[in-house]
Specification:
about 220 residues, mainly alpha, two-stranded antiparallel sheet, about 5% strand, elongated, transmembrane, membrane, transmembrane helix
């Protein structure tokens, strides 16, 4: 029996099936621009991690209120929104990386499009105003409390890094949106049925229906009024 292990080329995106010494080549669809998708996903993960850490640090400083320092209410609300967006993009970017590593394609197109849209809309409507309010903080307004003034200077730097990272995340997702659409159209993955896996098991419901004959109904006692 001839062996094809030494003569059959090994390709990452091709499978070979042997039947009666005949080789049948089955080509698997490969998403175009997979490298672009991978690079953009990695950028989203890194920038989201930076925004997450710096926004969390600022919120922790505000909660601790060192030397009586606190964020203005409007700025605090916007930082919390940016922190929530960083959590969203951080989680989904890592889920996409795991999916690309496992199946060579990201998560479902519609889920990623929703995340892209939410990220861009919320960041564009939140980050610029938050940056303006942060830079308008004046350490001199906390004098003669030098501790609060130093905290203000630190918060301005930390919050600036976090908010700028959030803006860059939105820019990455803004670029990624048309890339996802183009990749999906070229690969035809939008036509393939999407399946959701659930843990195995059985759930049974047993029921019975009994039909009574008219004779049995007639023989049944009838209450007299």
């Amino acid at each position: 029996m001839a062996s094809t292990s030494d003569t059959t080329p090994l390709l990452a995106d091709t499978e070979y099936q042997t039947e009666d010494n005949n080789i049948t080549t089955v080509h698997q669809k490969k998403d175009p621009l997979i490298r672009t998708t991978l690079v953009l996903t990695i950028l989203s993960a890194l920038l989201s991690a930076i925004a997450f850490l710096f926004d969390l640090t600022v919120l922790a400083i505000d909660a601790a209120t060192p030397h009586g320092y606190y964020l203005f209410w409007g700025l605090r609300s916007r930082v919390r929104h940016m922190f929530g967006i960083s959590v969203l993009t951080l989680v989904f970017s890592h889920l996409n990386l795991a999916s690309i590593k496992h199946s060579r394609r990201p998560l479902w197109l519609w889920v990623n499009i929703v995340v892209d849209a939410v990220t861009v809309v919320y960041v564009v409507s939140t980050a610029p105003e938050a940056l303006s309010q942060s830079f308008n903080q004046s350490p001199d307004s906390w004098l003669p409390d030098n501790g609060a003034a130093n905290t203000t200077r630190a918060v301005i730097v930390l919050l600036g890094i976090g908010l700028i990272s959030g803006l860059l995340v939105a820019f990455v997702h803004l670029i990624h949106f048309p890339v996802r659409c183009y990749t999906s159209l070229k690969s035809g993955s939008w036509q393939a049925p999407q399946s959701w896996r659930v843990p195995g098991g059985e759930f049974r419901i047993n029921f019975s229906i009994k039909f009574l004959r008219q004779e049995e109904l007639r023989e049944s006692p009838i209450e007299e009024q």
